[in-house]
Amino acid sequence: MKAWLIENDDGIDALNLTDVEIGDPGPGEVRVKIKTSSINRRDMNTVIAPSARNTPLPRIPNSDGAGEVVAVGDKVSEFNPGDRVASCFFKRWHAGRISPAIMGSALGGAEEGMLSEETILPEGALVHLPEHLNWDEAGTLTCAGVTAWHGLVARGGLKAGETVLLLGTGGVSIFGLQFAKMMGARVIITSKSDEKLERARELGADETINYAETPDWDDAVKDLTDGVGVDHIVEVGGAGTLQKSVGALAFGGHIALIGVLTQGELNPYPLLGKSGRISGIYVGSREMFQNMNAAISANAMRPIIDRTFDFDDARAAYHCMQSDSHFGKIVIRSGA
Known about the structure:
The protein is built from eleven helices and 15 strands. By secondary structure, it is an alpha/beta fold. The strands form three sheets. Strands 3, 4, 5, 6, 7, 14 and 15 form a seven-stranded mixed β-sheet that branches. Helix 6 (194-202) links the parallel strand 9 and strand 10. Helix 4 crosses helix 5 (171-182) and helix 7 (217-224) packs parallel to helix 8 (242-248). The longest helix is centred in the middle third of the chain and has 14 residues, at 141-154.
């Protein structure tokens, strides 16, 4: 079968499409024909600088993938040939608290990823898909979807009537918008693009802020909330935004800190003064994924796709991610 491999630190254009062998599924394992894979910021950073991330080489990139079960090994109880499934970000995070061993089981990093025509995974690293999703939509859930769900719902405890602030219009933020509206929350979202803000409004965003035109967007958030601030923030803004997020937070509010983008120093005093919480969010468990899928199914929610690329054009998909022009998810179709 064909797979894309990271083989060196020479970046996107050095990705190599080659033949690999994966064998047959062993006890407790499932072989999947991959239909689609989507790109996250973490995946692009791994492709660009694998050594900086201590990624073993060669390595198949991408955590996200959806496909059809083609074979199962002995002792597999949850899946049968023909089932539609998606990969979990971590092979070994089934439920409960994360651990160093779980951290070392991330697909597309410590473990082989999903940018290939087929894969073999333990059954505990797969979930059944919502029936109403097509393959493109199904391939977007693993990282961005679970991250947004973990931050807002599993850790944040989002409730109807609360207010959510989302920074930007990438995959995590757009999933966050959809989940927040699904839960009955009010949503404020930022972007430097008026066109993207208009699209966010079409998806249900209640208020929008162009942060290029309004650099003190934290003050704008407080104005929009009558000085109270927001109950939840999905913090993916990049260097220098965290302090502003604390400023925009309501008393007793929660900031979900999404790792690969959020950087910068923090003066903790304003957070202490508000009795606020900051949680480090690194995707989530299989249990969270299953709970998210149940909510997606119950509400017939559909992930937002920005662009799709053919399997042979995977390099172009990464360049698209690098350009920061996307709204929602970028999907690669395997064609398998």
